[in-house]
Design goal:
single chain; 70 residues; mainly alpha; 3 helices; globular
């Protein structure tokens, strides 16, 4: 599965806002996919997401990508 760069950045920001976790960009892609496919399961179904890597290493790159998008 894949998501766009913009969708991955949205996943990066969403996990930070909702959980206070700065995800690695790999995890941000998964967060975005989960959000985009939310209708595939019931509201009470558990969702398991493996949060790997260190998002603090990606903060500068994410900031640069956001500035370039303006």
């Amino acid at each position: 599965m894949s998501v766009t760069d913009d969708a991955a950045l949205a996943g990066f920001e969403l996990l930070g806002k909702l959980e206070g976790v700065i995800p690695a960009l790999e995890t941000a892609h998964a967060v975005s996919w989960i959000v985009a496919n939310a209708g595939r399961w019931s509201a009470d179904d558990p969702i398991l997401l493996c949060v790997s890597g260190r998002g603090d290493k990606d903060v500068a790159q994410v900031a640069e990508m956001r500035i370039m998008a303006l």
